[in-house]
């Protein structure tokens, strides 16, 4: 069984998120989503509309997602890859090169994001903020 992992906040869930998860699942049989906790989002100076448990529940209801785990900090990625026997680490192309240090542990892929949609764009249009 090929295992894929991806990371994110997944706030204001939209079709760009769904498309990323659908495409991620095509790289393996089992998709793990490491979801940023509320505490980690504070460290990143991000504010989510939905709390961690609400975002987790939404992700768990998506058919492409097999497991949701908490993302508590930047440094946990190497351990997650080892602990969950990950074959492919996958992120959006805006992170290109940032996680190449994982190439010794697994395949690293940066997927092009869905054009015309992002959580940042939605927040700007709705609230005038990021």
From TrEMBL:
One of its GO terms (cellular component) is cytoplasm. One of its GO terms (biological process) is teichoic acid biosynthetic process. It is an enzyme of class 2 (transferase). InterPro entries: Archaeal_FAD_synthase, Cyt_trans-like, G3P_cytidylTrfase, Rossmann-like_a/b/a_fold. Its EC number is 2.7.7.39. The keyword Nucleotidyltransferase applies. Residues 5-124 form the Cytidyltransferase-like domain. One of its GO terms (molecular function) is glycerol-3-phosphate cytidylyltransferase activity. SUPFAM superfamilies: Nucleotidylyl transferase. Keywords: Nucleotidyltransferase, Transferase. This is Glycerol-3-phosphate cytidylyltransferase.
């Amino acid at each position: 069984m090929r295992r894929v992992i991806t990371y994110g906040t997944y706030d204001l869930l939209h079709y760009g998120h769904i498309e990323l998860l659908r495409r991620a699942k095509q790289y393996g049989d089992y998709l793990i989503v490491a979801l940023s906790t509320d505490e980690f989002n504070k460290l990143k100076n991000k504010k989510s509309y939905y709390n961690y448990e609400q975002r987790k529940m939404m992700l768990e209801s998506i058919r492409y997602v097999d497991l949701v785990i908490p993302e508590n900090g930047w440094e946990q990625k190497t351990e997650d890859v080892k602990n969950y026997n990950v074959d492919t680490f996958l992120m959006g192309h805006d992170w290109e090169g940032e996680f190449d240090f994982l190439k010794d542990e697994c395949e690293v892929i940066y997927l092009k994001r869905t054009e015309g949609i992002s959580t940042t764009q939605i927040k700007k249009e709705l609230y005038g903020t990021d």
